[in-house]
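Pipeline run #58 for the internal structure catalog. This entry was flagged by the ingest filter as a single-chain record with no existing model, so it goes straight to prediction. Upstream metadata was stripped on purpose; only the residue string is passed forward. Reviewer on rotation: M.T. Logging verbosity set to normal.
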Amino acid sequence: ANWSDPATRNILAIFGQTTLKLNKLLSLESFGENLALTAGVRYDNYDDIGSSVNPRAGLVYGPTQELNFKLLYGTAFRAPSFREMYNKNNPSFTGNPDIKPEKISTLEAYIGYKLTDNLETNLTYFNSRIEDLLAIITTTAGVIHHDNFGSLTSNGLEFEFKGSWGKNKYGYINATYQNAKNTTHATITDSTGRTYTQEDFNPGSIADIIGNVGINYDFTENIMANLSLNYMGERKRSGEKTFDSNDNLVVIDQRDPLPSLILLNACLTLGHFDFLKDLEMQLAVFNILDQDHRDPDGSGIITYDIPREGRSYMGKISYGF
């Protein structure tokens, strides 16, 4: 049997954007080096799911050449895939042609400061909210299919410090702290009719802290090396609860969290030699320390999660004509 209904999708999209130099428009030259508002809107129309209008705006203020602030807001959406809409003849789940797109809105506040000609730093606060999450659910009639169910929030801070000593000589350190919560507040019922409304809970598989340290250095115009260290903090399991066979309220996924990990990667690039200027060769080594690292399996079906590659190598040769 066919695993999907035949389907087509026609998409129309229109986008417009403008930038207003407010310090000039409102005669505020003495207010600072730069004050500008960028605003845009995008209209998308899918003939199978309908239309979506998404605005975005950014206010930028630079009181001096070294200091600048940004306030950004925007919305976006993810259209359901054909699999989520038209899947059929699958004993695990089926598609649902009536589902809607997932929607996200994000607010960011940024401050950046240039310490010297070679050193700069920035700090960003972000807050995102996702609505109409697409999930596989079981209806009261016992049908297992995709549907819009739930909401998610994420907020946190991003920090970065960068230094440069030439076009291809630079180093950086950055870190992100994020707090993600499932805010669906779904209600579950035990065999006696007792109900429980889910509180905000950790959706699982998301590290609270991630960070990167890296350096790029060109020894000559023909030889360049890059070294990076990537840190990912502990990833907890979902805090969603259920009633067990004895009507006790328990956490569904009781596996241990995925431990924190550090991955070390390096890359060497050779090229642009006088005798062959358009040739470039690259050798990269990933996970140099051969760490055991895994992608979290949120379903809980794969007990020990999804293993990723150990130490691995990639070579690339490119030539521009």
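catalog note: DSSP finds two helices and 21 strands in the chain.
catalog note: The first strand starts at residue 11 and ends at 21.
status: ready for reviewer M.T.
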